[in-house]
């Protein structure tokens, strides 16, 4: 039998945490043959509710779940973890300035970076879900110099999956037959959902989404805004933000990162920019990536037309501004 993998979930008493931990314990994230030990972190006001989650995990009698560490101590939570999914953060409340929210998250991510850097297992992979996800991941990278930048990422897979879902609904095809959409940039409303290289598997072979949809007006406007604003649509309908879809996307992100993407398929991940596609180096930016042996690689050589170029640049500009704001909170 395989040794258990230790998976940290921060913000585990929150609503994404509540949807995510049973998925991990069932093998959705790392496979049906991979035992796990869950490390759950939240803050002291949520300690009782966190303990309730632990009680329910015991009650669910998951065969793959070999242990639960539920704690409000960052060092205890981070010790020995192989995978860290950082969902905890400070939400923007009504009337709060952007800078105040940023400042709270910068201090959270700074301290978690240092705990992970010192206490996580070697080669720990980190996924930041909490917003502002890209910039929180960047702060983490800055303050955890012992964690290689290739091991730090943020979640844009939910946006990627939303784009697949929209194409599937539009064409009335199975979502599993749609692939290679791209989310470029920030996990925010400036992200650019790009279908220019996306395809659908049909009985007659693989066809470009642009050819099948044959409605450029829809693809160039409504499709993009629907994906960009899907989070707000969920809040409007549910009076709560996306949780099950976010948890599922976090599992997809880690599973593909660890177990690899199928030949010919790419996914979107927020990763440290090396300057590919003329995106400024030093931002955490969502790119199309393939993965193999636990490592991602940015898909190279895709043609970027003028329409796309503007959108790639716009979301990069927003990320540069967020980065500047985050740094201004450090001093
Ligand atoms: P909740 O408010 O339900 O849960 C957040 C939890 O984090 C709470 O239990 C809170 O006590 C805890 N927390 C706060 N500070 C902490 C700290 N320093 N250490 C550990 N835990 C801490 O929010 P939820 O709906 O679960 O969303 C969590 C985060 O995901 C938010 O930042 C949200 O904006 C972000 N999202 C990101 C998405 C993405 O695709 N990247 C999509 C979904 C979601 O909106």
TrEMBL record:
CDD domains: MDH_cytoplasmic_cytosolic
Keywords, sorted A to Z: NAD, Oxidoreductase, Tricarboxylic acid cycle
Chain positions recorded as substrate binding sites: 92, 98, 131, 162
UniProt: NAD(+) binding residues: 11-17, 42, 105, 129-131
GO BP, one annotated term: malate metabolic process
Domain Lactate/malate dehydrogenase N-terminal: 5-152
Reactions that this protein is recorded to catalyse: (S)-malate + NAD(+) = oxaloacetate + NADH + H(+)
Top-rank taxon, per record: Eukaryota
NAD is among the record's keywords: yes
GO MF annotation, one: L-malate dehydrogenase (NAD+) activity
Residue stretches making up the Lactate/malate dehydrogenase C-terminal domain: 156-324
InterPro entries noted in UniProt: L-lactate/malate_DH, Lactate/malate_DH_C, Lactate/malate_DH_N, Lactate_DH/Glyco_Ohase_4_C, Malate_DH_AS, Malate_DH_NAD-dep_euk, Malate_DH_type2, NAD(P)-bd_dom_sf
SUPFAM superfamilies per the UniProt record, alphabetical: LDH C-terminal domain-like (SSF56327), NAD(P)-binding Rossmann-fold domains (SSF51735)
Active site: 187
EC number, as in UniProt: 1.1.1.37
Pfam family, one: Ldh_1_N
Family (UniProt): Belongs to the LDH/MDH superfamily. MDH type 2 family.
Name of protein: Malate dehydrogenase
Naturally occurring in which organism (per UniProt): Lupinus luteus (European yellow lupine)
